[in-house]
Amino acid sequence: MDSLCGSKFWDSNLTVYTDNPDLTSCFQNSLLAWVPCIYLWAALPCYLLYLRHHHHGYIILSHLSRVKTALSVSLWCVSWLDLFYSFHSLIHGGAPAPIFFVTPLVVGITMVLATLLIQYERLRGVQSSGVLIIFWFLCVVCAIVPFRSKILSAMAEGTIADPFRFSTFYIYFALVLSALILSCFREKPPLFSLKNDPNRCPEASAGFLSRLTFWWFTSLAILGYRRPLKDQDLWSLNEEDCSRQVVQQLLEAWQKQERQTAGRAKAAEALGKKVSAEDEVLLGSQPRARKPSFLWALGITFASSFLTGSFFKLIQDLLSFVNPQLLSMLIRFIPNPEAPSWWGFLLAGLMFVSSMTQTLVLNLCYQCVFVAALRIRTGIIGVIYKKALLITNSVKRESTVGEIVNLMSVDAQRFMDVFPFLFLLWSAPLQVSLAIYFLWQILGPSVLAGVALMVLLIPLNSAVAMKMRAYQVQQMKFKDSRIKLMSEILAGIKVLKLYAWEPSFLEQVESIRQSELRVLRKGTYLQAISTFIWLCTPFLVTLITLGVYVCVDQNNVLDAEKAFVSVSLFDILKGPLNTLPILITGMTQAKVSLQRIQRFLSQDELNPQCVERKTISPGSAITIHNGTFTWAQDLPPTLHSLDIQVLKGALVAVVGPVGCGKSSLVSALLGEMEKLEGTVSVKGSVAYVPQQAWIQNCTLQENVLFGRAMNPKRYQQALEGCALLADLEMLPGGDQTEIGEKGINLSGGQRQRVSLARAVYSEADIFLLDDPLSAVDTHVAKHIFDHVIGPEGMLAGKTRVLVTHGISFLSQTDFIIVLANGQVSEMGPYSALLEHNGSFANFLRNYSPDEDQEPHKDHRMALEVEDEEVLLIEDTLSTHTDLTDTEPPLYEVQEQFMRQLSSMSSDGEGQVRLRRHLSVSEKAAQVKAMEAGVLVQEEKVETGRVKLSVFWDYAKAVGLCTTLAICLLYAAQSAAAIGASVWLSDWANEAAMGSRQNNTSLRLGVYATLGILQGILVMVAAFTMAVGAVQAARLLHHKLLQNKIRSPQSFYDTTPSGRILNCFSKDIYVIDEVLAPTILSLFNVFHNTFSILVVIMASTPLFTVVIVPLAVLYIFVQRFYVATSRQLKRLESASRSPIFSHFSETVTGTSVIRAYGRTEDFRVLSDIKVDTNQKSCYSYIISNRWLSMRVEFVGNCMVFFAAMFAVIGRSSLSPGLVGLSVSYALQDAAQDSAFLPRLSGTQSVVPGLAILLSSGRLLGMKTFRSHLRPTGSKAAS
Fold first, then answer.
1. Apex 355 CA angle, 354 and 357, nearest 5
2. Strand arrangement of the beta sheet that strand 639-647 belongs to
3. Which of 195, 735, 994, 1099 is deepest in the core (most CB within 10 A)?
4. Mind giving me the DSSP string for 958-990?
5. What pLDDT, on the 0 to 100 scale, is given for residue 860?
6. What is the DSSP letter of 612?
């Protein structure tokens, strides 16, 4: 390099050992000028690859782009001027050094590259270029040194040695500074980009610096501080994070896995056929078939995000070892009076720069992996939802709604929780290896003692992890059983209340809960042991290493540099060792969840090819040839050897005794059963009316339209034909009245008529009607048959298959199929079957009315003729006709009961026989809801701060003595930590004072006692918290269960079961497994932060000058963050329930959804609900990164000021105190960023707790009798 420059490249006397440092001209003209160029050329291949795969549109040539291009061209011209000047000097007898030819050439070519990049980025739609901003920033930074050097040289010599190069350099500096400033401004949005979204996330159009510092989120943080956030305030998701794209990618990867597995299975089967019997005996049994790997599908889909995050984490890991080396240099600098002061200030500045770079890189890493984790949860929920629409009936028997809800809520969440920690699999070994390497440089072979301890603790950690996994499996089984039972209870809550069976089912749920809590208690105790291990491991490693170092040789003196640099390195070592248990626990739980999800996704699906929809016999609408069907492969066939042909436009009745297979026949035509043999052909679109009507939780109009466009004329005809006009007059909001979940606020007849109206409105080619007239009264059935189903009805000319027990309509059908024992016993027209006197005649005899009931029938039919409209209204008023359909009571008794129920319905709630005492507020809310026609209210989102009463109630549930003991134990732990640090500082100062460390055993013993005492105190606190948390979990679940079971029926009419199940799954999961560890973590971080501040202020009193402004800035950021993040978490919690409510509703209506061909529509609807939930999750993740940037900036300022004040006051400070102060400041930078998220995290999981607690207060612990007290009981008594 010296020959290239013609002068010395490096001069220590000029650069280091002087009070006025400078760099040589060779260094400035070569390396400093080349650094930006090397960076841009190195980044070019990767950046071009990125631009090639990310095209955002075309940006028009703006004034900003023109100016930036002009600046780059000007810089190219300045570089070439320098080059031509060097040639000019050479021609005229000068001898310029080769560096004056090389550097202008390199810089000039690089400026051409920068010019081309500016235009290429514009064509690819890049609004703000991070690559070029860094390039211009490096150019400015590297030019600052020559900028200062040339001025000082000119001032020292009194003249400018080379005026031309002097002028071109300052022109160059002005141009690169201008280019840097202009590059910070973003271009206009590209043309032909994404759709115009009024609430589009500003991240996509934010500038590079804004994205780097998350400044684009500030507007939402300010809005959240000013007022509680609403769902409308949240931004839309980025395109790559939407369910539509994420689910499709994961689904394709999973289907590829299934195809590959199926291909390998076929190949193995083909190979197996070639193996002879003798070979099979010799070679042994064939290897077990390999199953498709859902983990591999996840890896393929989200590997890019993981690799990007890993790249950022690698940079942060390497940078984390810079500060300990700088601390070592700073401690050596303090006692050296000959060292220039600028050394110390430079070290302080480098510490700040290193810490800020770590902050930037680590937050980019966390944003990448946490958003990827969010996308993983989105993908898993979407894939499970799609699978649930396709599973067979045999799978439904094994996987209940509650179990599948657990897959979507708990298991998907566990993947989301563990993914951000997966990079520890390689990061932890890297950090441990580097830490051991640097410790070896300081302490020598003594570090092997600490390594040996870490190796010995691996089997212990593994044993704990394996045991925790076993407990996790047991707990999930009990949780599934509990959620399954709760799902069944909610499905039949009306029956439970009418029969007063609540106590019996309460005992069953509580029994399962007790078993679950027993396993949970064991798991929490293991967690406490694990906490003790991970807390003591770093300290024990430090203790054993330092102890071996000072004991193995009397000449080994523990000075401040060795002690506190080692402590800093051990503190880095503590990071991966502390998080490894979290990773092990998370991976253990995720493995269990992976097996559960993979097992569900590998279940059998309905074969869409079992019903042929293209080819069919001419003139036929439905044909079955030799069809044999079963509900499951392990069950005997339900339908045998069916040969049926239904002509196009015919009305066909299917009759037979109970259990003969009538509904199974309809299911076989829909493809819901498994076909064992034969062929089924159905030509045309299908409308299906099931025997148990499936009603959505939406308005009556939406139930009828079922996703189709509104046709007023057809809609009116459907309502009129299905006798729903009278119902609309009685409903509070007409056809805009919201129907409760499962049609809970409609009678059985009303539900069936709405279901029939849905089919009529669909205008399908084929109508499969599974006994739609059984739930309505006789006069209503006659009206429906005459106006809809019959030969003169609206469906005349359509193909209709009617399953019925009513014999009065059979004479009007075109064809009758009689089933018996799963087979067609006879079929034909009505008259022909009567003459045959076979099974059909027996059916007529069984289902014809008895003679003693004829007078009542005649009386009722006469009433129908006289006033049919009145009877239709009576059926409308009846809200419990499904209770009267099963038995034929005397007409007078039935009429009296109907009148009573009618009066009940007119009041909105049963006030005649079953009276419930409503409070004034409940009545007002009920009236208001009825007036608006809205039955199911949106889940209320709390606003503002979490009330202290919630924390107080949880403290009482844990136990006040237990809570006080935990606080005292953590305070004692903080005191022990401060004592250990001060003791180590005093020990290290003995070496600085020149005294021999003869009392090594005393020093080591006290230090060991204080350290182990910390671990014991924290372990006792963890055990105490475990006991209290399990007790609180038991009490809160008991309170929630009692409240929900004892809630009146109106509560279930207006509350989706998915919302209630969410309380018993996700909210109880938070209480069981999340809240207590979060509170412990908050305690730990709070006491550590307090201890660190005390130590720093005691070590460096001058630090108290900046603690006030830093604290003000910290509190200012905290005010914005906590208010915003808390509300975001509440919005996330409120938007989570509709996902599971919609899913529960979908699972119960899969046959209807598939029949109408609306599977894809429901998937889209589910994706919308998931995206609504993910919007708040995404904003919450970004809020954490926004906070981390600002709070870690405060922590990094503390590091800077602690180091700077140590330099200023080095004459009065010992190396031990400086090492203690700065090493603790480095720890505080991490503690500060951890405290607020844990504080907000505690407040964000508390809303679920608040819901459980408030549920107990709303209705109290009323007895069952208070809800079921007859109106005349008081008078009677």
1. 65
2. 639-647, 620-630, 674-682
3. 1099
4. H-HHHHHHHHHHHHHHHHHHHHHHHHHHHHHHH
5. 42
6. B
Token output for 456: 């010995």
In the chain, the N- to C-terminal Cα span, in Å, equals 111
pLDDT in tens, 418-431: 888 888 889 988 99
Whether 1243 shows a pLDDT value over 90: the answer reads no
Distance (Å, rounded) from C-alpha 1189 to C-alpha 1183? Answer: 10
pLDDT tens digits, 746-773: 888 888 899 999 999 988 889 999 888 8
Cβ-proximal residues to 66 (8 Å cutoff; 6+ apart), any chain: none
The answer to whether the beta carbons of residues 1183 and 1244 sit under 8 Å apart is no
Strand partners, 625: 679
**What percent of the chain has pLDDT above 90?**
15
Residue pair 1247/1180 in contact by the 8 Å Cβ criterion: no
CB count within 10 Å of CB 755 equals: 27
Rounded CA gap, 1148 and 1056, in Å?
14
Nearest Cα to Cα of residue 484 among 415, 416, 407: 407
Q: 1247 with 942: CB under 8 angstroms?
A: yes
pLDDT of residue 141: 92
CA quadruple 1044, 1049, 1054, 1058: dihedral sign? positive
Which uninterrupted H or E stretch holds 334? none
What span, in angstroms and rounded, lies between the C-alpha atoms of 1074 and 1241?
Answer: 10
Three-class DSSP category at 194: coil
Question: Residue 140: what pLDDT?
Answer: 94
Helices (H), 1055-1103: 1057-1062, 1068-1069, 1075-1099
CB atoms within 10 A of CB 78: 22
Question: Which residue type is seen at 567?
Answer: V
The count of other CB atoms within 10 Å of the CB of residue 280 is 12
Q: Which two tokens stand for residue 721?
A: 């034909």
CB environment 955-968: b (16+ within 10 A), e (fewer) = bebbbeebbebbee
Q: Enter the DSSP assignment of 30.
A: I
Residue 903 has pLDDT above 50, yes or no: no
SS3 label, residue 602: coil
Contact between 741 and 836 under an 8 Å Cβ cutoff? The reply is: no
| Cβ neighbourhood burial of 289 (10 Å; 0-12, 13-18, 19+) | exposed
Phi and psi for 593 in degrees, rounded to 5?
A: -65, -40
Whether residue 1263 is predicted with pLDDT greater than 60 in this model: the reply is: no
Measured over all CA atoms, what is the biggest interatomic distance in the chain, rounded to whole angstroms?
A: 135
The contacts found for 553-558 with CB under 8 angstroms, 24 or more apart, are 556/446, 557/991, 557/996, 557/997, 558/987, 558/988, 558/991, 558/997
β-strands 620-630, 674-682: how paired?
antiparallel
Which residue, 185, 194, 199, is CA-closest to 129?
A: 185
Please give the pLDDT value at position 733. 81
Torsions phi, psi for 14 (to 5 deg): -80, -30
Residue 870: per-residue pLDDT? 43
pLDDT number for residue 194: 53
Residue whose C-alpha is closest to residue 388's, from 1165, 1167, 1164, 1159: 1159
pLDDT for 1116 beyond 60: yes
Span 142-189, pLDDT tens digits = 999 889 888 888 888 877 878 888 899 999 999 999 999 999 888 888
Dist. CA 642–CA 884, nearest whole Å:
35
Length of the chain: 1277
Q: What 3-state class would DSSP assign to 645?
A: strand
In 3D space, the residue among 605, 661, 603 whose CA is nearest the CA of residue 629 turns out to be: 661
Q: Is 853 exposed, middle or buried (0-12, 13-18, 19+ CB in 10 A)?
A: middle
The three state secondary structure string of 621-635 is: EEEEEEEEEECCCCC
For the cut 60, the answer to whether the pLDDT of residue 998 exceeds it is no
Q: Can you give the pLDDT at residue 840?
A: 74
Q: Do the beta carbons of residue 1073 and residue 410 sit within 8 Å?
A: no
